[in-house]
Amino acid sequence: MKKIYEFLLWNNCGNNCTFCHQREHERKIDDKILNSKEQIDSLLKCQEFLNTQFKKGNHILLVGGEIFDIKNEDVKNQLKILLNYVISKMLCADIDLLYLNTNLLYEDTTLLYWFLDIIENNKLFDRLKFTTSYDIKGRFTSKERELLFYHNLKALTDKYLDIHIVVNTVLTNEACERIQNDQFGADYLLEYLKNQGKEKFTIKDWINYFKVDINTIPYIRLDNNIAPEMPIRLTVFNTLLHINEIIPNYLSFYVNNIGLKQEKLLYEYRKNTNDFVYCSSKLGKCGHSINFKRCFADSDKCFPCEVKKLLNFNR
């Protein structure tokens, strides 16, 4: 199976989700936040890594922080150079798949559209793994910010007919409750959909309206943080079973996806050494990341292993 080389370019992000472990820990450390020159250095080092250490034929992921909400023109131009380089390597099959994540919480989408236009012109949407995030609690600081996300998401799927967007949503207690009650989305979203003529709000209706896929991800408690929104195992199980009722075979696909034992090589840029440092988490005996043992409020059992048991029991 092909590997994914993951590059954390910087932690800079203007959103500050309340549950973000980077916000709570790493952003307090000065060497995790980059100024414009350091961001350019990171982009240059990433391209150098791809040119000298990356094993051809594998996948890559580029992530922040936020990489498309850039104000500095020099940084923006350097990112364009890197993205053009990546696309050239995709066209000659040196890079197979490109994974990208963006929060869509910025008004100026010019840079994002510039990139997606190139992807479309080169017919590469089938090799772009494009993700964003939506969370009922902790992500949006105002109604305006939430509506901005909806607007940007809908605009993307309306403009680019071949784009496939996966929206990650964290399985907090509130998310689980709303999914099970067929009220997926925050109150502002329900109001927004009503204004669009929508009367049903199951998770499937949300998917159909925005023309995306939803990926429910576990609430991982890092560094023994207090996590009041973390659900117990039964709550997670009931939520996944409810989705499976609405979307047939969802659970089978979900188990295969989250339990996939694919090697992921995470590298983070460190400005004090001007280099990318390997920082992937350790694996447990089951072959999954040890972080998956921090996903239930009442258990330290591995999340992928437990949902696989749920699938086998549900058959």
Question: What is the element layout, followed by pairings?
Answer:
Layout lengths: L3 E5 L12 H4 L11 H17 L6 E5 L9 H19 L6 E4 L8 H12 L6 E6 L9 H17 L5 E6 L2 H8 L6 H9 L7 H8 L2 E5 L15 H14 L3 H9 L5 E7 L4 E4 L24 H12 L1
Helix pairs in contact: 2-3, 3-4, 6-9, 10-11
Descriptive report:
The chain has 315 residues and is an alpha/beta fold. It has one domain (4-314): TIM Barrel, CATH 3.20.20. The chain contains eleven helices and eight strands. It has helices at residues 21-24, 36-52, 73-91, 110-121, 143-159, 173-180, 187-195, 203-210, 233-246, 250-258, 303-314; strands spanning 4-8, 59-63, 98-101, 128-133, 165-170, 213-217, 264-270, 275-278. It has an eight-stranded mixed beta sheet with strand order 6-5-4-3-2-1-7-8. α4 (110-121) links the parallel β3 and β4. α6 packs parallel to α9 (233-246) and α10 runs antiparallel to α11. It is globular, with a radius of gyration of 20 Å. The protein starts with a strand and ends with a helix. The model is unreliable at 24-28 (pLDDT under 50).
In short:
By secondary structure, the protein is of the alpha/beta class.
Looking at this protein, list some descriptive labels.
315 residues; 8 strands
Main β-sheet, in a few words? 8 strands, mixed
**CATH domain topology:** TIM Barrel
Strand order of the largest sheet: 6-5-4-3-2-1-7-8
The number of strands is: 8
**What is the end-to-end distance?**
28 Å
CATH architecture: Alpha-Beta Barrel
Morphology call: globular
Q: What is the ordering of alpha helices and beta strands? A: EHHEHEHEHEHHHEHHEEH
Can you tell me the residue ranges where pLDDT is under 50 for at least 5 consecutive residues? 24-28
Strand content: 5-15%
Which CATH top level class fits?
Answer: Alpha Beta
What is the CA-based Rg, rounded?
A: 20 Å
Q: How much helical structure, as a percent, in the residues? A: 40-55%
Number of helical stretches of at least 4 residues: 11
